[in-house]
Each structure stands twice: as C-alpha cells, then as structure tokens.
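Internal tracking record. Fields below are filled automatically when a chain is submitted to the structure queue. Please do not edit lines marked as system-generated. If the sequence contains nonstandard residues, flag them in the REMARKS field before resubmitting.
Queue: standard
Priority: normal
Entity type: single polypeptide chain
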Amino acid sequence: MPILLVVDLLAEREAFGKKGVEEIVSHFPEHEVLLWAPHTNQQIEYGFGKRVDAPQNCDVVVITGSRRNVSSWEDWMDDVAKLIRECEVPLYGICFGHQIICKALGGEVERAEEGSSFLADVTYTDGTVKKQLFTHQDHVIDSGEMEVVASSEHCEIAVCKHPTRPIKTVQFHPEATKLVLDYSLQCGDMTGDERNKFADGIQDDNVAQSLLN
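SYSTEM-GENERATED OUTPUT FOLLOWS
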C-alpha cells in the first residue's frame, strides 16, 4: 500500500486541521496516512491516520497550512526544510507549505501589513482563471528554484512548480470546501465575520485539480 505523509501543521485545530486534512487525504485513496506535527504536542485525535514523531519513508508528501509564519522562523521549521530539500517523492504544499517549500529552495518570504482572507481569481500562465480561497499573511516574494505558474491580484506568486522535481505548491486553500468552512464556524475555529468573507466558499478547483493534475 502506498504511504502518504502529511506534514500536519494545523494538528491542534478542529476544522482546518482535522476536517481539512480529512479532505486532503480523500484525494489519495488507498494510501496509508502518516501524520507528522513537528510544531506542537497538542495534536487533536483525528480518528484516522497514524501519528509519527519524524518523517518516514513514503510515496508522497503534503505540507499543510499553519498558524505559524515562515517570516518568523522557528527551530522545528529546520526539520521541515530538510525534508523538502531531501525529498525524492512527489511533494505538495498548501499555503504555509507553499511558503516553506519556496524558502527551503532558495526563495524569500515576507510579512504583509495585514492578512488576506477572501475568494480571489488566480490567473495561470496559460490564461486560465480560477476562483480560490486565500487566508494568509506571509507572501512569497522570490520563489527560488520554483517556477511561478499562476498569480492573483494580491499575491504575485500564487502557484509554483519545480522545473525538474515532482513538487507543486499553492498559496490558497483548495481543501477549504464549503463543508470545512461551515464546520469551522460551527466548532468555533472561525467567527461569523470571518466566515462571511468567503461567501458561498465554493472554489473552482479542489486539492486534486489544483495540485495533483
């Protein structure tokens, strides 16, 4: 059975952690799921996957979003960066994952004056436009080894891929389905005002369409 390693950087959250990861792993059927949360000892029990204390041999890696910031580097991020640089299997990054992959591969990330939380158009280099959900404060300002393949009005480096390695990253949250957003409000991870910023919350591309294709 193939193995999926999720670098689970929202493991302490009920909605974007548990429900968000549940949505991510649904796009990797028939995979054994390993959950690595190097940033915290306060992991929520998901009811699926196996928690591990360090990266393990696997067939694919996904790095999730986080409440932490690449622009405010913490010691545990060194371990994630090492995984990124040494990874030989397909590697995908979402939001924080996008940022730390670019940073680990020679790029730069900076703090914005204020965070961004809304649905926005993402324009790909082939002219395709997709509506996706953003919520972040750090921005990638130099993608390093990664090639930029899509931008949005507020975020010049919104989607990247590596020219020679099987790596792809997105600044937005394709796992934030309407179900995940509504659950965030229900469980208290998100306020009513925060939830209202995303309107119907329906994105054009899900995890598989935005990252795996």
